[in-house]
Amino acid sequence: MTRWKLILEWDGEPFMGWQRQDHGPSVQGAIERAARQMTGEDVTAHASGRTDAGVHALAMPVHIDLEKTLDAHRLQEGLNALLRPDPVAVLSAEEVAPDWHARFSCLGRRYLYRISNRRAPLALDRGRAWRIAKPLDLAAMQEAAAHLVGHHDFTTFRSVNCQSDSPLKTLDRLEVEQVGDEIHVHAAARSFLHHQVRSMVGCLGLVGMGQWSPDSMRAALEARDRAALGLNAPAEGLYFAGALYEGPDA
Amino acid sequence: MTRWKLILEWDGEPFMGWQRQDHGPSVQGAIERAARQMTGEDVTAHASGRTDAGVHALAMPVHIDLEKTLDAHRLQEGLNALLRPDPVAVLSAEEVAPDWHARFSCLGRRYLYRISNRRAPLALDRGRAWRIAKPLDLAAMQEAAAHLVGHHDFTTFRSVNCQSDSPLKTLDRLEVEQVGDEIHVHAAARSFLHHQVRSMVGCLGLVGMGQWSPDSMRAALEARDRAALGLNAPAEGLYFAGALYEGPDA
């Protein structure tokens, strides 16, 4: 048996999310089906993070176990051929130790959230960013974001369906930068609560539009109450950007 | 009668190109239909450049004449609402002089061509770039591009369907730059022959892959013969990037 680490890119638009579903297409289902077609084996794929419907991935680490002996290049090319026409691509494939786990060995996750700040609808970036027509106040968003960095109880920014044991998380990075007519939010932590990034970005959007002051963000955090959440940003602007592991991969 | 200058963005994937067609969707047809729905008038739209099927636009100037009196904001918002779900967006609308013409007043056109230089298929950028798996030699491409800049007979780089009176054109700019794992080609000229940018980029691709030397590009140009063309790059990597006019718009 060989354990393989795959890095996947996908367009979240047609999928119900990462996790295999009976009632619709999933990225997990797509990669497992391709691996089964290639090897004849029943394969279970594990991802660093489970993403919701519509959420994209720039570089999602996933592992699968295969009995069949393959070289990395052939595995990558074969999976990519079999994944068509699903918008999922295997960016790389490498052998890892049998105890390496895409989810449990992961030491850090990074997300990118794209806000397109313009009046016109998105033609080229439809389904790829959250469009906010009202001009956003970048400095206010940056000030608000700073309140969330650190070790906090993130109950306010947590989905009611969140399965995490604790609402306590350490947010290592929450940066807001202007990139042309877009605003990018970069978030990094060892792990996130369900909907945490979208919830934080939704409130940053309210701050940017002037509906919330930067201090309202601190008040929302301190409320430790989902009812204090201002807005959950849409899934389509969210990208799983990368993950960190120990050793030479890190 | 008011003449309106519209700047359009579109995703070329679902369209047969700019020009109205009996047998399939076109950007011209989409914008004319939206304007007719809004005003009840028969509208003809004129674009700075006519693009082929699959070619995108980041900022295409277009003009239409309307009898109905409208303000610019209402026109933009109304057209955008009526264009849905077509992936066409009106980025701006402004009144111009009645003799201003999107095509005939245009003093310069710019194109961007995106090459994605990676082994894996494109999941997020499918239909948005030309993927070349083999690592490209950027310096060789830059050297080859320099041979094409200036006033030349571009017969080699001209479609057999080109309707231009003359194959003589002045290419003001042809720059090749690395952007992450992409190579961007920037082309600018007063006007281009049909398929000129795609033909030049196709040959640049051959140079980058080592199938042509940079000097082969000069030989191809000097052949003044379509048979000397190495490769026509696919439409999906091409973006009409902008146009130049006299006056304060320039």
UniProtKB/TrEMBL annotation, chains A, B:
<feature type="domain" description="Pseudouridine synthase I TruA alpha/beta">
    <location>
        <begin position="144"/>
        <end position="245"/>
    </location>
</feature>
<dbReference type="InterPro" id="IPR020094">
    <property type="entry name" value="TruA/RsuA/RluB/E/F_N"/>
</dbReference>
<comment type="function">
    <text>Formation of pseudouridine at positions 38, 39 and 40 in the anticodon stem and loop of transfer RNAs.</text>
</comment>
<comment type="similarity">
    <text>Belongs to the tRNA pseudouridine synthase TruA family.</text>
</comment>
<dbReference type="InterPro" id="IPR020097">
    <property type="entry name" value="PsdUridine_synth_TruA_a/b_dom"/>
</dbReference>
<comment type="subunit">
    <text>Homodimer.</text>
</comment>
<dbReference type="InterPro" id="IPR020103">
    <property type="entry name" value="PsdUridine_synth_cat_dom_sf"/>
</dbReference>
<dbReference type="Pfam" id="PF01416">
    <property type="entry name" value="PseudoU_synth_1"/>
</dbReference>
<keyword id="KW-0413">Isomerase</keyword>
<keyword id="KW-0819">tRNA processing</keyword>
<dbReference type="InterPro" id="IPR020095">
    <property type="entry name" value="PsdUridine_synth_TruA_C"/>
</dbReference>
<feature type="active site" description="Nucleophile">
    <location>
        <position position="52"/>
    </location>
</feature>
<dbReference type="InterPro" id="IPR001406">
    <property type="entry name" value="PsdUridine_synth_TruA"/>
</dbReference>
<feature type="domain" description="Pseudouridine synthase I TruA alpha/beta">
    <location>
        <begin position="10"/>
        <end position="104"/>
    </location>
</feature>
<protein>
    <recommendedName>
        <fullName>tRNA pseudouridine synthase A</fullName>
        <ecNumber>5.4.99.12</ecNumber>
    </recommendedName>
</protein>
<feature type="binding site">
    <location>
        <position position="111"/>
    </location>
    <ligand>
        <name>substrate</name>
    </ligand>
</feature>
